[in-house]
Amino acid sequence: MSIFEYIFFISLFGVIYSYFIYPLILLVLPKKNSSLIQNNEIKTEDLPYITLIITAYNEEKNIKDKITNTLNISYPEDKREILIASDGSTDKTNQYVTEFASQGVKLVEVAERKGKENAQLSAIKRAKGEIIVFSDVATRIDPNALQKIAADFTNNRVGAVSSEDRFISDNGEIAGEGAYVKYEMWLRNLECSVNSLVGLSGSFFAARKKICEDWSINVPSDFNTALNCIKKGYIAISDPKLLGYYPNIKDESKEYSRKLRTVIRGISALFSTPEVLNPLKFGIFSFQVFSHKIMRWLVPWFMLSLLLTSLILWKDNIFYSLILIAQLGFYLIGLCGFIIKPLRSNKFIKLPFFFLQVNFALFHAGILYLAGKRITKWEPSKR
Known about the structure:
With 383 residues, the chain is an alpha/beta fold. 49% of the residues lie in helices and 15% in strands.
């Protein structure tokens, strides 16, 4: 085979590995965590003390609704506390939080804005709960959420529990990326059934306080929590019945910026904790991180090299020709969705468009990271 053929097959493998081959491997691996989700009722006197930490930055428009939603969660008041970690807010966020002081809501004011994880750390130091629940202002939570979390932690192997995401449009339906999100949630469930999650839903998750003892302000909390679980002999799981509801981001440019920030922070986190890729230390978790994170970030680069080698090889063999035609057709469908916005409501166009959008963001984020771009301050998406 020529060098171009080698590159072609490596690229083809790279494109399909993270999305298809990796899940197939998880499907055939032993399911040692097949019954972790607990649905048992817990007596009131046996419920753990829970601290809810809500991180906010300049959320004067939404903070009251978020606090009201939190206060409506069904859980004994003497067994929960609510801390609002304000990350250097300069608007009326802090003022509005203090209006709920009589209802037990406490403000943790961080004077210097250093990012989400730093604000969370300030709140962790004040937290009394044996279980800590983290949430963003945009997240809406079901009234029985804390009961579900308490039940999940009755399993002594569980160190952290992630919610599952539901993005809601203005008319109350699942937003455009719904099918993609469903795939991610399915993959998460596979991961925790085999071993442990490699990342939680950063906007709504819970962890034992001992898991939060090694809290890094430089690593995204969703990844750091999953990593700390493995380090301390616990696992992180996803509960399909624990839901976090998020309004869809209306401004597409802001949604794209959110994706860029998320990927750049993720790459930075991995480079700051390279030991996580050592299978002698972390076992199958290292394989999961490599497959789910690194190989996913490399997909757009594999896509580019696959297209280029297909253009070089298409005359040599009908197989190369068919792969080239499939690529061009897929890109054309995605391009139609980009140019003609109403077409994105069509399921045959929506998924190719969203897949290409995500991978272009991954490509862009990779370029920015290589150029020295780093995300040092947290900027919540306005929804």
